[in-house]
Amino acid sequence: MSHIDSFKHELVGLFGGLPLYHPLEKIDGDFQADERQLILGGGSGEHPAMVIENPLAAVAWFLRDELNSLKGDNIKTKDYPLKRYIAQWESVIKEHESWDSNEVLKFYDWTIETYKNFYDLSTSKAMPNPYSEDSSKEIEEWLILGLGEFIFFAMPELASPILEKLEEPYQYFTYMQYNNVLVIPKNFPLYANGGNAFKFK
């Protein structure tokens, strides 16, 4: 039994085999989290927890990266319609941005070995879109961008202050960059006491 099992929660999916949870009540124990956040790892008895403390900032980080990629003169509006709305989207995400990864992610009881194992997992070919050691981005940025992408597409309720101000935002995206969270399909038995975070009809 892991620490998170003492609290109501639902399973969002698996990140390289590590469970990603959404708490359904406030958690105050091995780690602190609430219903507005996500948790990677269940704490003692499972894997040391990492709390995505600011999902809004993660989504803002992801969207900022997307918008910056459209600013080159070689990027044409006819091919990338979102380029037309860069200023508008920037005004929406600006108040939610935080460029300090420590304000987005909080690690509880992670040791040097935990960090090393996580780095090895993140660079593993077993990940659909692993972190590249040659990347210009630090691994924390890669992780935040990936989680921001996931929340943007799969759990927009955690970033509603942003999503509610963007009109039909998904029409501007044609492919995924990170997509490293495995969502558990319908009817699979789960150990999470709040079930699956995604409700299938």
Q: Main attributes?
A:
about 200 residues; alpha+beta; six-stranded antiparallel β-sheet; two-stranded antiparallel sheet; 8 strands; about 25% helix
Your description of this structure?
With 201 residues, the protein is an alpha+beta fold. The protein has one domain. Helices cover 26% and strands 14% of the residues. It is built from five helices and eight strands; from the N terminus they run E-E-E-E-E-E-H-H-E-H-H-H-E. The strands form two sheets. It has a six-stranded antiparallel β-sheet. A hairpin with a 3-residue loop joins strand 3 and strand 4. Helix 1 runs antiparallel to helix 2. It is globular, with a radius of gyration of 17 Å. The protein starts with 8 loop residues before the first strand and ends in a 19-residue tail after the last strand. The model has no long low-confidence stretch (mean pLDDT 93).
In short:
This protein is of the alpha+beta class.
Q: How many structural domains in the coordinates?
A: 1
As residue ranges, the low-confidence spans are: none
Cα separation of the termini: 30 Å
Number of helices in the DSSP assignment: 5
Mind describing the biggest β-sheet? 6 strands, antiparallel
- Kindly report the average pLDDT value: 93
List the helices and strands and how they pair.
Layout: E1 9-15, E2 18-23, E3 27-28, E4 32-33, E5 38-40, E6 50-52, H1 55-68, H2 86-93, E7 105-107, H3 112-122, H4 139-154, H5 160-163, E8 181-182
Antiparallel strand pairs: 1-2, 1-8, 2-5, 3-4, 5-6, 6-7
Helix pairs in contact: 1-2, 1-4
